[in-house]
Specification:
mainly beta; four-stranded antiparallel beta sheet; globular
């Protein structure tokens, strides 16, 4: 299974970026896809996620600014990031896992894409 992430870059405070992640080789029909981020010296944390049935999760710090969406036909997940702040600076990783009905979770097996760097300048 491979996940290919793209869309990172350098943007000024208040700007926008759109991250994309496409997976291939997975047979998980009900799955969860999402985005984590890891800033220098910090742990990797979940930012947003969405199951194939539409359950979503956002961490509090991005609610109202970030929007996650999926295109199941394309095996893709997107993260629209608006009103970016310097504290959003991090390497963003996409993740794929098995879903559970009626809830949001990443169950094994899970897979990670390579990171894409988002830098927000002040």
């Amino acid at each position: 299974v491979q996940l290919q992430a793209s869309g990172g870059g350098l943007v000024q405070t208040g700007g926008s970026l759109r991250l994309s992640c496409v997976h291939s080789g997975s047979t998980l029909s009900e799955n969860t896809m999402g985005w984590y981020r890891q800033a220098p010296g910090k742990q990797r944390d979940l930012v947003a996620g969405m199951t194939s049935s539409g359950n979503t999760y956002y961490t509090d710090s991005v609610k109202g600014r970030f929007t996650i969406s999926r295109d199941n036909a394309r095996n893709a997940v997107y993260l629209e990031m608006n009103s970016l702040k310097p504290e959003d600076t991090a390497v963003y990783y996409c993740r794929l896992g098995r879903a559970v009905r009626g809830a949001f979770a990443f169950l094994p097996p899970t897979y990670w894409g390579q990171g894409t760097l988002v830098t927000v300048s002040s």
